[in-house]
Dirigent protein
Amino acid sequence: MVTTFRKLVSVLLILISLTLVTAKSRHFSRTLSPSSQKLRKEKLSHLHFYFHDIVSGKNPTAVRVAQAAMTNHSPTLFGVVVMIDDPLTMEPEPSSKLVGRAQGIYASASQNETGLLMAMNFSFMEGKYNGSTLSVLGRNAVLSTVREMPIVGGSGLFRFARGYAQAKTHTFDPKTGDAVVEYNVNVFHY
Ligand SMILES: *[C@@H]1O[C@H](CO)[C@@H](O)[C@H](O)[C@H]1NC(C)=O
Ligand SMILES: *[C@@H]1O[C@H](CO)[C@@H](O)[C@H](O)[C@H]1NC(C)=O
Ligand SMILES: *[C@@H]1O[C@H](CO)[C@@H](O)[C@H](O)[C@H]1NC(C)=O
């Protein structure tokens, strides 16, 4: 009985000391110097690629996942939500070199003109950018010649990214709804 009690006490003591040790090494917040994160000089990069939004055929890369009761009566398809995993290529031809994918959603968020809410990540697989991502969140008035959307962040080589993307429709097939969109991205990162 006594030995069990002693064992229990020693286990408790070990647990308490472990908690103290880990409490010492953990913190909720602290100040870091940018150099400790290897953040030396901010640079500005330009990326250029083509976005293929394929809604038709057997292998669409953009699929409607939700809509409102009124969506099909709305001239702007207000309320439709489309999930995308669109290829990004070097040239306008779909068979040209794949540099990444645009993954996320777009949704019709405007009742009176064609305006999409875009929430997507560009996931790159080309060269040194392989595995790095950029996050886009913005409004896309697809009938305007050039649309601008903010780059709100990134990962990998694009940590701390901020900038903007300009989208310009290269081709749009009104029969199928498929589109190829040219993207020019200017982004600050380290
Ligand atoms: C974009 O990537 C971030 C980080 O990986 C993730 O949290 C977010 O859900 C992604 N957004 C979309 C729209 O896929
Ligand atoms: C959009 O159109 C509807 C119906 O035509 C109208 O009632 C509404 O005021 C318009 N909204 C804007 C922001 O123009
Ligand atoms: C990108 O990285 C993945 C995983 O790290 C690797 O399998 C793939 O071959 C790389 N692709 C290119 C084009 O370097």
